[in-house]
Specification:
Pfam families: DNA_pol3_delta2. Keywords: Nucleotidyltransferase, Transferase. It comes from Sphaerotilus uruguayifluvii. One of its GO terms (molecular function) is DNA-directed DNA polymerase activity. Its EC number is 2.7.7.7. The chain is α/β, with parallel strands linked by helices and about 350 residues long. The protein folds into two domains: about 180 residues, P-loop containing nucleotide triphosphate hydrolases (Rossmann fold), CATH 3.40.50; about 100 residues, no CATH class. Helix content is about 45%, strand content about 5%. It is built from 13 helices and five strands. A five-stranded parallel β-sheet has the order 2-3-4-1-5, with helices on both faces. Helix 5 links the parallel strand 3 and strand 4. Helix 1 crosses helix 2, helix 2 runs antiparallel to helix 3 and helix 11 packs antiparallel against helix 12. The chain is elongated. Bound molecules: zinc ion (ZN). Zinc ion binds next to helix 3.
Length: about 350
């Protein structure tokens, strides 16, 4: 399976296999870094049936019976516990219950207590094929408090040879009692060179421009480019904001726009502090000196305002009005002008 793993996850995976031996691991990192793929690859390596010394760096062989069952998601000693909304991404059939859940209903993003209880029954069984069992829960922060509490005791004292992998985007959103029972494993930001090479191999033009604009996260960069926000779009973006051209940005999904505006503010702050911009290297320095104190105050305040908007950015609030407000507010801050009313 390691063949399907993104190249930048290979080194962290080898390292984790060599050094992380706790029975409960908390793998955390932004969704874009692939914590789910990483956790599955980890589970596969533990369940691989080829003797360890015959495998490259302890990674799964990808050929044995155990590996095949993991790849087919039918290994009897592996349970993937994900919300409905992520079943497909996890390689699971869309509908677990077989009740033919209605297509009109949005798949749930929560991990419900019933699902946790069912997984705990799995934990109680003796391993049927491998020397141990693996329960993978992702994203762990989507367990509500009841579900998380149901897990606690078993997480502390599993009944048999057992490994838990909790994938997580935001560890601070987890109950401290869950966090404290796990060994933490942070997925690093993908190093720039392999990320660029990978994007170029996907056929992306001017990959560096898109990668920078997307915070150095290659999966996000590729997704953005495929949705039309390619290098050209990102080159134009700072000027569009500076000119208040919200019509040009009208089609952007709000979460993407909010994040891009945040990055633009950060870059202007960097300029004000005499540093090079990071996300938008072509960002022009403002003509004439801006009052640095006022600029910093305006940008800091606007950054906080954007963060608050980001929390609601996937709600269907009136999009054209929202884009207009976001762009105008950011534009004023970037030029250290008074905020629009
Ligand atoms: Zn194998």
């Amino acid at each position: 399976m390691s063949a399907g793993l993104h190249p930048w996850l290979r080194a962290p995976l080898q390292q984790a296999l060599a050094t992380r031996h706790a029975h409960a691991l908390l793998v955390h990192g932004a969704q874009d870094r692939g914590p789910l793929d990483f956790s599955i690859a980890l589970a596969q390596a533990w369940l691989c049936e080829t003797p360890r010394h015959e495998r490259e760096h302890g990674l799964a062989c990808g050929r044995c019976g155990g590996c095949h069952l993991v790849l087919e998601r039918s290994h009897p000693d592996l349970r993937l516990l994900v919300p409905e909304s992520l079943r497909e991404a996890a390689g699971l059939p869309a509908d677990e219950s077989g009740e033919g859940s209605s297509k009109t209903r949005k798949p749930s993003r929560e991990i419900k207590v019933d699902a946790v209880r069912a997984a705990l029954e799995f934990v109680g069984l003796t391993p049927s094929r491998a020397p141990l069992k693996v329960l993978l829960i992702h994203p762990a922060e989507e367990m509500n408090a009841v579900a998380a509490n149901a897990l606690l005791k078993t997480l502390e004292e599993p009944p048999g040879p057992m490994r838990f992998v909790l994938g997580c985007g935001a560890p601070q959103a987890l109950l401290p009692t869950i966090r404290s029972r796990c060994q933490m494993l942070a997925l690093p930001r993908p190093p720039r060179e392999p990320a660029l090479a990978w994007l170029q191999a996907q056929g992306l033009q001017d990959a560096a421009i898109v990668l920078d604009a997307c915070g150095g996260e290659p999966l996000r960069a590729l997704e953005q480019a495929r949705e039309g926000r390619d290098a050209e779009a990102w080159r134009r973006f700072p000027a569009q904001v500076m000119q208040g051209d919200s019509a040009a940005l009208a089609g952007w999904p709000l979460p993407v726009l909010v994040e891009a505006l945040q990055r633009l503010c950060e870059d202007r702050l960097r300029q004000a502090l005499g540093l090079a911009p990071q996300s938008f290297p072509l960002l022009e320095a403002p003509r004439g000196a801006l009052p640095v104190d006022r600029l910093i105050a305006a940008l800091t305040e606007t950054a906080a305002w954007l963060r608050a908007r980001a929390r609601h950015a996937d709600h269907p609030w009136s999009a054209p009005l929202a884009v207009e407000a976001l762009v105008q507010r950011t534009r004023a801050a970037l030029a250290a002008r008074p905020q629009p009313a």
